[in-house]
Every structure is written in C-alpha cells, then in structure tokens.
C-alpha cells in the first residue's frame, strides 16, 4: 500500500515493506553490525515503511526519487528553508526540487 502525505509543502510517498524486504533488511543489518543482532522474524512483524520524495530539476527537467531520510537531514541543516533543493545529477546545478514544488514554480513562471 502506498500513500502520499504533504510535508512542508511537498509530497512524501510511503509504502509498507513486504515481509521479504524486512527479513532482508534485518539480515543486512546483522551482517553489517555484528555486535548487536536483531531477530529477523521479530523485525519482520513490525510495520515498517519506505518513504521517498519525487524530485524534478528546474533547469533540465531531470526526474529522480530521493529517500525521505536524506530529505530530513537536509531540512535539519537548512531548517529555515521551506523545501529541499539538491544538486541535479544530470546538469549539476542546484535546482532539483520536490516535484510538487516544481509544478508550483513552473505554474507561476
């Protein structure tokens, strides 16, 4: 199941992880960590979501999807900004914004 919620004026897509994805993440965590292990079966019983934001470049129209955790880190550092702006991997300009913000900006230009 996928849902969209507005955060600071932009949409965040969320979907619940499947049982298999949760097991894989638990195993990856255990392989990486080694010191503090989690039980994959217990972890798989939890409700866990992947969240992301669809992004679009104001300069070249390149589209990408960015993990919401990366967006949260950006917002934490740039707490006075209304929405995130990243460098576009296609044109290398600081113009990659949430797609819903892109639509608003283009509508007013």
Core attributes:
alpha+beta, single chain, 4 helices, 6-stranded antiparallel sheet, 109 residues
Topology (SSEs and partners):
Elements: E1 2-7, E2 10-16, H1 19-33, H2 40-44, E3 49-57, E4 63-67, H3 68-77, E5 86-87, E6 94-98, H4 99-107
Antiparallel strand pairs: 1-2, 2-3, 3-4, 3-6, 5-6
- Output the radius of gyration: 17 Å
Count the beta strands: 6
**Average pLDDT rating:** 89
Protein structure class: alpha+beta
Low-confidence stretches: 1-7
What is the CA–CA distance across the termini?
35 Å
Total domains, how many? 1
Helical coverage, percent range: 25-40%
Order of helices and strands: EEHHEEHEEH
Q: State the helix count.
A: 4
Assembly state: single chain
The largest sheet, given as strand count, sense and whether it forms a barrel, is: 6 strands, antiparallel
Large-scale geometry:
elongated
The share of residues in extended strands comes to 25-35%
Précis, in short:
By secondary structure, the protein is an alpha+beta fold. Helices cover 36% and strands 31% of the residues.
Question: Would you write up a description of this structure?
Answer:
The structure is a single chain. The protein has 109 residues and is of the alpha+beta class. It has one domain (2-107). The chain is 36% helix and 31% strand. It has 4 helices and 6 strands, in the order ββααββαββα. It has helices at residues 19-33, 40-44, 68-77, 99-107, and strands at residues 2-7, 10-16, 49-57, 63-67, 86-87, 94-98. Strands 1, 2, 3, 4, 5 and 6 form a 6-stranded antiparallel beta sheet that branches. A hairpin with a 5-residue loop joins strand 3 and strand 4. The longest helix has 15 residues, at 19-33. The chain is elongated and about 55 Å long. It starts with a strand and ends with a helix.
